[in-house]
Amino acid sequence: MEPIHIIGAGLAGSEAAWQIARAGLPVVLHEMRPQVATFAHRTGDCAEMVCSNSFRSDDDRMNAVGQLHWEMRAAGGLIMAMAARHRLPAGGALAVDRDAFSQAVTQALQAEPLVSFQPGEIRELPTEGRWIVATGPLTSEALGQSIRGLTGEGSLAFFDAIAPIVHAESIDMSICWRQSRYDKGETEAERTAYINCPMTREDYEGFIDALLAADKTEFHEGETAGYFDGCLPIEVMAERGRETLRHGPMKPVGLTNAHNPAEKPYAVVQLRRDNALGTLYNIVGFQTKMKYGAQIDVFRRIPGLQDARFARLGGIHRNSFLNSPRLIDDRLRLRARPNLRFAGQVTGVEGYVESAAMGLLAGRMAAAEALGRDLPPPPATTSMGALVNHITGGADAKTFQPMNVNFGLYPPLDAMRGGRKGRKDRYPAYTDRAKADFQQWLAGQS
């Protein structure tokens, strides 16, 4: 049987390859790195995590992202299996040692006899064979031009910013303390997964002044700052109002200063462990487009980070995505050329987990088609199905923007309509329904 080809060995492409091989079919994984580098990636490993080391909430009872984790595990997903193996304490979140994680994904795929690797850049969309395009938001310019030429769409893009990473030994723990918000977590390691930097009102106001005055990265001609709201640079948030950050990534709620329990911080900057050794911490929610020199000056104004040394400074890059409601069907096939499927962030889902989930679906759908079967998407009552439904028709093509999974994408429960007061009952009802429906979808494939 002819192999199924995948362009891109990121989270989506790696998961798609795994699912195809699990179905007993050969698959060829094409990856341009490290021969052709991107400014954001550091290695040629599969599933390299660039912006963060977190897969976000792992709560499959009260959170749509956690439910998506559950669905991927139920479907035998490689990404979730390797994330579990290289998990780091992070409160209620699923964070990983990013280098060990991507190396493990690479090794698992290399050890699979049905998966073969073909290095090098694919510059044009293939006209024959079964292909999955999982090139992510950093699709190469040549392939991007080929996609635009076929679809007739103009360039669709948003800007994604990378948060800085700090060497743990340079953090002043006489000022900072370890605590997860609301002491969340079942173990002491989980409950102390974050380092917290407290700010007085004076500290906060000075920080905002410095942030607003800092030198920012210039955009290239023809680029516009069409940010995705879930990943706004902190300076853009600050420009929307001086209190915005204090009600966002710098909110002080659920935290008590271990050095001075009686004094409530006006704002708090949190850092989350970035590797298994605990030597690196990323500044949570601090994506930025400040110039490097300005970043060091501004971030060292944070109490506890006055002597911080940075393993990586923040950055900003252009992310491309398709107008999927117009271009892709619910089997993730390009309407203009159905032998091509798309998966991952290039489809307009936002986030590591969502990208990998679209890879999982694309792989299963491509394998089913090669075996002479049609595989519909999971029901829209599931996290995976809700995402597919959104990007392939649920969203308005005229205003389409990248989307994280959330309960707002789920069909409502008629018996539980209502506002915030109903969340404790409504969210478990959503996830109970999602689990049952997803299991039934899986059972239909056996």
Automatic annotation (TrEMBL):
Compartments, as annotated in UniProt: Cytoplasm
Transmembrane helix keyword on record: no
Enzyme Commission no: 2.1.1.74
GO biological process: tRNA methylation; tRNA wobble uridine modification
A GO molecular-function descriptor: flavin adenine dinucleotide binding
Domain of life: Bacteria
Domain MnmG N-terminal, chain residue ranges per copy: 4-373
Catalytic activity: uridine(54) in tRNA + (6R)-5,10-methylene-5,6,7,8-tetrahydrofolate + NADPH + H(+) = 5-methyluridine(54) in tRNA + (6S)-5,6,7,8-tetrahydrofolate + NADP(+); uridine(54) in tRNA + (6R)-5,10-methylene-5,6,7,8-tetrahydrofolate + NADH + H(+) = 5-methyluridine(54) in tRNA + (6S)-5,6,7,8-tetrahydrofolate + NAD(+)
Pfam annotation, one family: GIDA
Principal EC category: transferase
GO cellular component: a single term: cytosol
Keyword match Ribonucleoprotein: no
Principal cellular location given in the protein's record: cytoplasm
Keyword annotations: Cytoplasm, FAD, Flavoprotein, Methyltransferase, NAD, NADP, Transferase, tRNA processing
Binding residues annotated for FAD, in chain numbering: G8, A9, G10, L11, A12, G13
Cofactor: FAD
Family: Belongs to the MnmG family. TrmFO subfamily.
Function: NAD-binding protein involved in the addition of a carboxymethylaminomethyl (cmnm) group at the wobble position (U34) of certain tRNAs, forming tRNA-cmnm(5)s(2)U34. Catalyzes the folate-dependent formation of 5-methyl-uridine at position 54 (M-5-U54) in all tRNAs.
HAMAP family named in the record: TrmFO
The protein's name: Methylenetetrahydrofolate--tRNA-(uracil-5-)-methyltransferase TrmFO
Species in which this protein is naturally found: Paracoccus pantotrophus
Source taxonomy: Bacteria, Pseudomonadati, Pseudomonadota, Alphaproteobacteria, Rhodobacterales
Gene of this entry: trmFO
